What we know:
The protein is of the alpha/beta class. The chain contains eight helices and five strands, in the order E-E-H-E-E-H-E-H-H-H-H-H-H.
Amino acid sequence: MAKVKKELELVDPNDILIKYDNPRESFDNEEMDLLVESVKNEGVLTPIWCNAENGKFSLIAGERRLRAAQKGGLKQIPCRIYEVMNEAEIIALQAIENGQRTNLTNEEKLKQYLSMERVGMSLKDMSILGGESKTTIQGILSLRNLDESILYNPDIDKFAKVEMALFDKDE
């Protein structure tokens, strides 16, 4: 697992690159506007996570907070700095962060679990890092069998999508 270089450091948000693929793909504009106002008034209370590479910082987790800080004109935000050695460690850290949140969509979780699978993580590893049962993860991974027109259709319930994916898999 990645090592923490420093417990906490204050970093200029404009010096942080958004380089790694984040499972979250969309940000609600109204919620972002509220977050921007909050960080302008109170600052960023929960540190973002970054990877230190050759004197540069790359975001691992906390993209909403980073974007809000940038938009709000903050000059420094708290950042937990990691020295990450490989892609699997970055994906593991993202999974830990995302596992502690409750508002990822199944499509965003699918993207996360496919990344974890791609770097060789087992279902058990995914469960521990992602904070979900192996059965839930298997259901989410089954979504890869769906056509994108069904997967990204907001009118189809998330449970119906899993049922459809599992049914299609059995045929």
